[in-house]
Design a protein that fits this description.
By secondary structure, the protein is an alpha+beta fold. It has 7 helices and 4 strands, in the order E-H-H-E-H-H-E-H-H-E-H. Bound molecules: guanosine-5'-diphosphate. The site of guanosine-5'-diphosphate (GDP) has 9 residues, from helix 4.
Length: about 140
């Protein structure tokens, strides 16, 4: 099932460093329409739930602690081929390996504090969007 939607978060490092505006600008200029957006914070319990798939990974504890360290911006985005195009726009997980001009290359400092999240599949985009937004907020 293809929905043409993806889910993103601007992570605590990028929010703290004042990059919200520049990142949203780059996202909309790349042709993504904002369907829903909110500025909020994750408790460590919520961050653990969001990243449940990584629970057994060695970096899980650091990831939860980082993602609950400050405010984030959560958003649902719409565009043809949204998942793939957004992953291209943000660049590799490790900003050192991200292509020049990508959001992570421009705004991220390290593999853990990597500025933005982007869903890796249609299924996960839906699960992640539902985690943050009620049915009427994402209509
Ligand atoms: P993504 O889909 O590109 O975000 O990457 P993954 O799904 O593989 O990992 C999820 C998130 O976990 C990444 O965006 C990073 O914030 C974090 N992460 C991944 N690898 C590492 C690592 O080796 N160390 C730490 N501390 N965090 C990591």
């Amino acid at each position: 099932m293809q929905t043409n939607r993806t889910f993103t978060m601007i992570k605590p490092d990028a929010v703290a460093n004042g990059h919200i505006g520049a990142i949203i600008d780059q996202i909309t200029k790349a042709g993504f329409k904002i369907v829903a957006m909110k500025y909020t914070s994750l408790s460590s319990e919520m961050a653990g739930q969001f990243y449940d798939i990584h629970r057994e990974r060695p970096f899980f504890k650091d990831l939860v602690s980082f993602m609950s360290s400050g405010p984030i911006v959560a958003a649902i985005l719409e565009k043809d081929n949204a998942i793939e195009d957004f992953r291209k726009l943000i660049g590799a997980t490790d900003p050192q390996k991200a292509e020049v001009g990508t959001i992570r290359q421009k705004f991220a400092k390290s593999i853990d504090a990597n500025a933005v999240h982007g869903s890796d599949s249609d299924e996960n985009a839906q699960i992640e969007g539902n985690f943050f937004f009620s049915a009427f907020e994402r209509a």
